[in-house]
Description:
The chain is 38% helix and 0% strand. By secondary structure, it is an all-alpha fold. It has one domain (1-60). It is globular.
Amino acid sequence: MPSNAKAAKRDDVNYVGSFAGAMMQTPSDASADEVNEGDLETARLYGERIAKIASELKAK
């Protein structure tokens, strides 16, 4: 679920939130080194989840 509570911080996992896949928000003139840590962790966790599901489907 998105971190959309008032207490949420920009570095929280899934801060932006989407049902369409991993999302992030970075200024258009930012470099790759400036990507928010919470967004990177969201992408990593999303990738783990997709890999697990793919592995389970392949085993069937």
